[in-house]
Amino acid sequence: MTRLVTTAEVRASLIEGREIALFDVREEGPYSRAHPLFAVSLPLSRIELRVLDLVPRWDAPIVVYDDGEGYAARAEARLQQLGYSNVAQLDGGLDGWRRAGGEIFIDVNAPSKAFGELVESTRHTPSLAAHEVERLIADKADIVVLDSRRFEEYRTMSIPSGTSVPGGELVLRVQDLAPRPETTVIVNCAGRTRSIIGTQSLINAGIPNKVFALRNGTIGWTLAGLELDRGAERRFPELSADARAAAQARAQALAERAGVRNVSPETVSQWQQQSDVTLYLLDVRTPAEFEAGHLPGFRSAPGGQLVQATDEWVGVRHGRIVLADDDGVRATLAASWLIQMGWRDVHVLDGGIKGGHLETGPRAPRHPPSPSGTIATITPQALAAERDQTVVIDLATSPRHASGHVPGAWFVVPARLRRRCRDCRPAGWC
């Protein structure tokens, strides 16, 4: 039987600090054009792939909605089939939220992006325009340009002379990249948010250097008519002992100012046995470090990305979050930002990964068991030989389909597969 909750009830949970997962079950495109601030994108077609990590507690409160497409009812049934016991639909869906006076936001990762704008507005985070930075580079001024995006994004296009230092690594690595306090540090991203948070992270940590964000990032650089590098490979160097010690001292001072709390491994073990609080265990080091050795039960969530896209790892608002690293620096920095973003139950693991039994390799996302029975497969060679008599359907996301797919494949959103299959059949088929 369908259970409905009102916009007022959802807002009360968000404001009062009670756990709630608010899922938009449309595809990410429609979600990005209109959604409540704390709604998480969980397309109907991706529920089995993502929900077990987003909502690790089976009786956590879950509310799903669509915009009249009929996806919410199917999502509710699917979640219940997976074993979730506290699932409801938003009364009236997205339109009901609007009519009840709920505000609508655009874009993905909206809470993090809105927070970045708030930080710049309240802290007056310093920035430089593209032409000012370009002039400093041309004049061979005493500066370093640090790119706070993921390395894959940096390699695609970057500011000339820039070095890849993902946002969660900045405080830990800056001493080795700018050992002289006279060196000016410039932080960039693709647009605004990550450079603002990266710059303010270094300022909050108390480094002696002048720090600026590159205003509007690589987008602003391009709009200013300047050329970007392509395929750059500059990464941060191996961490020195002096840089680690300086970063740890800065992180300790930051923890005291921001109210970051530590938690013992014993307490975390007790929390793992609790059934009334949703618990997220997140390792904020680089993916390579995570794969080299991590604590059982922890997921890889690089600190800078976690702060900028929290809803990609944490589906339940007001859940409990425990962060781990190897020396406390990156976990403390990420925790300080999450606390300021309104996450009230955030902790840094005492001692981090040291002293514990470690697992190696990537941690695969949690998925429900595959359906029983044999699934027929076909080799690429056989498919190529039979392509004229075979309908190929691509269930990947739209961007992935656009970047490359099997010749002749039809792009179909999995949630619409049954309806679209009729359109995919060649003329003359039944």
In summary, what is this structure?
With 430 residues, this protein is α/β, with parallel strands linked by helices.
Provide the structure class. alpha/beta
Radius of gyration: 24 Å
Number of strands: 17
Uncertain runs are none
Strand ordering within the main sheet: 1-5-4-2-3
Provide an overview of this structure.
- With 430 residues, this protein is α/β, with parallel strands linked by helices.
- The protein contains 19 helices and 17 strands.
- Helix 6 packs across helix 10.
- The model has no long low-confidence stretch (mean pLDDT 93).
List keywords for this structure.
13% strand; alpha/beta; 19 helices; 40% helix; 5-stranded parallel β-sheet; 430 residues
Question: How would you summarize the topology of this molecule?
Answer:
Elements: E1 4-5, H1 7-16, E2 21-24, H2 28-33, E3 40-41, H3 47-54, E4 62-65, H4 71-82, E5 87-90, H5 93-99, H6 110-123, E6 127-128, H7 130-138, E7 143-147, H8 151-156, E8 163-164, H9 170-177, E9 184-188, H10 193-205, E10 211-214, H11 217-223, H12 241-258, E11 261-263, H13 265-273, E12 279-283, H14 287-292, E13 299-300, H15 303-308, E14 320-324, H16 329-340, E15 346-349, H17 380-385, E16 393-394, H18 398-403, E17 410-411, H19 417-424
Parallel strand pairs: 1-5, 2-3, 2-4, 4-5, 6-10, 7-8, 7-9, 9-10, 11-15, 12-13, 12-14, 14-15, 16-17
Helix pairs in contact: 6-10, 9-12, 12-16
